[in-house]
Design a protein that fits this description.
The protein is built from 13 helices and 15 strands. The protein is an alpha/beta fold and about 400 residues long. A seven-stranded mixed β-sheet has the order 12-11-7-10-9-8-15. It has a six-stranded parallel β-sheet with strand order 3-2-1-4-5-6, with helices on both faces. Strands 13-14 form a two-stranded antiparallel ribbon. Helix 4 links the parallel strand 4 and strand 5. It binds NADP nicotinamide-adenine-dinucleotide phosphate. The site of NADP nicotinamide-adenine-dinucleotide phosphate (NAP) has 24 residues, from helix 1. NADP nicotinamide-adenine-dinucleotide phosphate binds next to helix 1.
């Protein structure tokens, strides 16, 4: 296949990230042929911005195009699995945003065990559609492609060490997106929405270690989880000024998960919406013979100071800082540091070369399994063993 024709379904925040990343791929490896969105205005504005020739509001009509080989799905989470299955059944390879899927109902409508089963049914159905139609899924877990994580893989190769203790986090002061406030549209709170990144990263790293050492991934064996709604505590509610997002309806804003892998090693993952001071995207790897600290955000490649944030005008500093004043850690190229152009290039190359991408179906599936197992654990107060 020479040029990969791409159709995007969705036209807002994540779609923008993906289209920018795709525009950085050099040569004529790929071309965005069409965009589809729920509203025509949104799709047309997106098409104008990225010079995309065709606009749709019916995704099935777009999927019928013969010049589209790869469908990108930067859509609200509750639509991922059905749109992915539609794309696969139309014979298209696809890119799914994180998390692959979940269970979309009111938080109290079902037990967490029933939610776990529903989420796995959705996840299994997507993988089955890939097998049935022989299409590739690119799982847009950008942590896997972030340059510091790529360097960690090379250091693992060289050191030959064992990942004994992984610690990872994605936290910030809260999402402003309306869909994120409700379980029915988000499928969970901070554990699913943000935790999918650090949980995906630690699962990926143990898969990678296993492949390198014995030709098979080292998978998660059991999960211990806890969740809380810290912005619903009385102490927080009484405070006169709120810096954190606190409009959560039925989703958690704090979570912790301890993962035990098949080889007995551990990962501890934190994801919270109660962390001021900008986005934290962090992984620390304690290997048997070395330590590697991955600071995707914040990092010190650029450190700036201004006594008043207004000095920087409208220049972007970094995501979700409450002020631009004082000492700051802007990323010179945040998209690159987070791995967005690298993930898109791998997905396009995977389709061109007929191979699995570095971040694909197994990682997407296991991430959902671990997160919903953590919800079961948090509700039932016990360690949850995964079927292997
Ligand atoms: N990897 C990352 O760093 C990252 C960052 C942010 C988000 N995400 C993930 O990306 C996904 C999307 O998040 P977002 O923030 O971009 O959400 P968003 O801003 O709410 O955008 C959702 C898009 O889906 C479109 N849509 C909804 N229903 C549709 C339908 N039936 N047919 C066609 N289009 C439809 C909407 O169309 P209209 O605009 O026409 O209404 C909108 O463009 C989420 O799963 C999220 O977890 C990942």
């Amino acid at each position: 296949m020479d040029t990969i024709g791409i159709g995007i379904i969705g036209s807002r925040f994540a779609a923008d990230l993906h289209a920018h990343a795709l525009s950085k791929i050099r040569g004529s490896k790929c071309e965005i042929v069409a965009v589809c969105s729920r509203t025509r205005e949104s799709a047309e504005a997106f098409a104008r911005k990225f010079n995309i020739p065709h606009v749709y509001t019916d995704h099935r009509a777009m999927l019928a195009r013969k010049d589209i080989h790869l469908v990108d799905l930067p859509l609200t989470t509750n639509l991922h699995h059905t749109m992915a299955i539609d794309a696969a059944d139309a014979g298209k390879h696809f890119i799914c945003e994180k998390p692959l899927t979940g269970c979309f109902t009111e938080a109290n409508a079902l037990s967490r065990q029933a939610m776990f089963e529903e989420a796995m049914k959705n996840a299994d159905a997507v993988l089955e559609a890939c097998r049935r139609n022989r299409v590739i899924m690119g799982y847009a877990e950008n942590f896997v492609y972030a340059p510091p994580v790529a360097k960690l893989r090379r250091l693992m190769d060289r050191s030959g060490g064992t990942l004994l203790d992984l610690r990872a986090e994605e936290s910030h002061s809260g999402s402003h997106a309306a869909y994120a406030r409700r379980w029915a549209t988000a499928g969970g709170g901070s554990l699913l929405r943000m935790g999918s990144h650090p949980i995906g990263a630690v699962i990926h790293l143990k898969h990678y270690e296993g492949q390198r050492k014995s030709g098979r991934p080292i998978r998660v064996k059991s999960v211990l989880g806890d969740v809380a709604q810290l912005t619903k505590t009385e102490a927080f509610r009484k405070e006169p000024r709120k810096w954190l997002v606190s409009e959560w309806e039925d989703v958690e804003d704090w979570s912790a998960a301890i993962l035990t892998f098949e080889d007995g090693t551990k990962a501890t993952v934190l994801s919270t919406d109660v962390s001021l001071g900008g986005v934290k995207n962090l992984v620390t790897a304690y290997l048997s013979n070395s330590v590697v600290q991955v600071n995707i955000n914040p990092n010190t490649s650029l450190v700036v100071y201004a006594p008043d944030g207004k000095i920087w005008g409208d220049e972007y500093i970094t995501e979700k800082v409450e002020t631009k004043g004082g000492w700051q850690f802007p990323s010179p190229d945040e998209d690159w540091m987070r791995g967005y152009p690298q993930e898109m290039e791998d997905f396009v190359d995977a389709v061109r070369e007929g191979r699995e991408p570095l971040s694909g179906a197994l990682l997407a599936h296991e991430t959902v399994e671990v997160i919903y197992a953590a919800y079961v654990s948090a509700q039932e107060g016990r360690r949850v063993d995964l079927k292997r």
